[in-house]
């Protein structure tokens, strides 16, 4: 695996590559969710590049940038095992945001609700760093997780609006055996919180079950999820939202189109996200990339 710490070096290497280049952007502290993106990239690309950068511009002042888990040696071992061709790990934040840096990308409307309500500048930072990575790496495809569905929708919009010739693939959420969505932040949970956290998955399942049973009132579907979350005293619910997956606008009335059910819950200081597309079939889960299609 080639390891590049500077934009100049990775660009020089990229200049000599032909064929399909798959990029998997990450903030490191890798787990099986990241590896699933790498596998998807591997299957569709000649060359796979993983980027690893804890991006300061997507954290606000009071957030966990400083304590975000970092473990480069373990990450590198995992990447070697995945047959990754190159790792781009900027040496420091200055490499991406040098002195006098002033340019940011704002994906309007899509960045505002859900996570954007709790984290107003978050998607500005995400869209900016992903656009920079696209310019530096020039991938033909880029791979994101449905676990962060709003991020995937924002990035996809940004890529289309700014004419990046990059296919955006959104891959299914990888879960622990008890249903908890894998996340680098799960390691912040203490034993009691970790035990409690799969309540999010059960809440998604409960809402999906009432939807399957024919319920189409958004309030009733949200309530099914909230009722399950309320059984867990350690779960401090931030939101349970039903939105159109493309516009991320809240739905007032259900149609037969797939709906995105998103949940954010705090366990102590750790905020966890999860979501499901309804109708949610475990055998043939709806695929966000194809649902978004031409949007
Ligand atoms: P992060 O390192 O948390 O910024 O995540 C990097 C990429 O991995 C993002 O596209 C995430 O959506 C994706 N990802 C994180 N957790 C999971 C998961 N459990 N399943 C699938 N993809 C994931």
Topology (elements, then pairings):
Layout: E1 2-4, H1 7-15, E2 21-26, H2 32-44, E3 47-52, H3 72-81, E4 86-88, H4 93-96, H5 115-118, H6 122-137, E5 141-145, H7 149-161, E6 167-171, H8 191-196, H9 199-212, H10 218-229, E7 236-243, E8 259-267, E9 270-278, H11 288-292
Parallel strand pairs: 1-4, 2-3, 2-5, 3-4, 5-6
Antiparallel strand pairs: 7-8, 8-9
Helix pairs in contact: 6-7, 9-10
Residues 26-27, 33-34, 36-37, 144-145, 147-148, 171, 173-174, 181-184 line the site of adenosine monophosphate.
Short description:
The protein is 36% helix and 18% strand.
What does this structure look like?
By secondary structure, this protein is an alpha/beta fold. Helix content is 36%, strand content 18%. The chain contains 11 helices and 9 strands. The strands form 2 sheets. Strands 1-4-3-2-5-6 form a 6-stranded parallel sheet, with helices on both faces. It has a 3-stranded antiparallel sheet with strand order 7-8-9, with helices on one face. Helix 3 links the parallel strand 3 and strand 4. Helix 6 crosses helix 7. The protein is globular, with a radius of gyration of 19 Å. The relative contact order is 0.13. The mean pLDDT is 96. Adenosine monophosphate binds next to helix 2 and strand 5.
